[in-house]
Predict the structure.
Amino acid sequence: MVSENFINFTYLVSIILFMLGLKNLSSPATARLGNKLSMLGMGLAILATLLVSGLSFKLIIIGIVIGTAIGAFSAIKVEMTSMPEMVALFNGCGGAASALVALSEFQIKGSQYGADMVAQIGGFSMTTLLLSVIVGALTFTGSVIAYAKLQGIVSGQPITYTGQQLVNGIILIATAALSYAVFQDPTNVTFFYIIIALSLLLGILSVIPIGGADMPVVISLLNSYSGIAVSMTGFALNNNALIVVGSLVGASGVFLTMIMCNAMNRSLANVLFGAFGSASESVGGATAEGGATGSVKGYEIEDVMTVLENASSVIIVPGYGMAAAQAQHAVRELGDYLEEEGITVRYAIHPVAGRMPGHMNVLLAEADVSYDLLFAMEDINDDFSETDVVLVIGANDVVNPAAKSNANSPIYGMPVLNVEEAKTVIVLKRSMNPGFAGIENELFLKDNTMMLFGDAKKSIQQLVSHLKG
């Protein structure tokens, strides 16, 4: 028989490893170590839990085998470009797991204590159990909708209807009222299941009005929700590891969400309720009222090659277009060649570039781009004015000068990369379709901008071939 003190001590060690892992994840240079420490912490936490007496090892082993198979298959088969979708889906799985555990605990305690359940387990435990079900359920369906939007199964445009916020408010009030009723009478199982159904519906209705441009923020927020659900489940089960780990995930998710909102100069309320990106601006010779005017100038590979050959400094700005074209390896090959020719090459990363936090960092790391060459927006923004060439690969809204100059633009006030200040800007883009914000990019109309249309991966491969030839 293993003592409870030993189990709690093992939990403490795993918690420390989680904290160290989270700390190391804050830097690309130490992210791999952070992952390993977190994995070790999770392994210890699972081992400690298995030492608890009275467990059904048959079901646990079945669960471990199924979970390991799904995780291994995902790690091997899912492309790095699809990582945002997988993160969203796994967030949902975490929420669903918390809700199911809380449901199981409710059924067990209900059959054990009946109407005296609240008095026996305590009001606080009952409250956390209900919160675990509510937050876990809405995290699950919200994450599924985020996944569907990222996959294109559901439109990336905000889906809105009249009285949407009123409907959500009514669902919240109904959920709170039913929770109070269950708190007063735990034998009312029907109300408990209705709470689950309403929470699932609320998760759907909360995410469908959010546009694709805000998916990085949504994924981060849902990650926070999953942590909160885990923490609430920990309180309900009196499990210290779940309480602390859930709190770490919940708090880090909230901080990351606020950082990303600040990066867009928008409030969280505006992200959740503003239906950003629902109206598309026209694409043509001019932007929205008050913006710049001009014409788009397309160039050939040979023109771009000549500009790069005469440059002494190049900054590469990756965006979702690079991920969609899976061009990260070709980008690294281009960067390596330019460095071999004595050209200074750096990468500028906007906080919300791509579809999840750190999306561009993950892709470039997969292509073995040196961490030392990756610079955050605030660290490199002042250098664009002294740069010969900026190569924008599939980025759109995060390099739009309208955010600084056009008060009528919906992204006005959003911090963007100052790419237009470089001597020459080369934009690799498949077409003139607008970005997630649904507006035209004034950068494309600038006199110092060269547009190279086509698939980003093929264009860069052709460019490297011409340069080497």
About this structure: The chain has two domains: 78-273, 301-468. The longest helix spans residues 83-113. The mean pLDDT is 87.
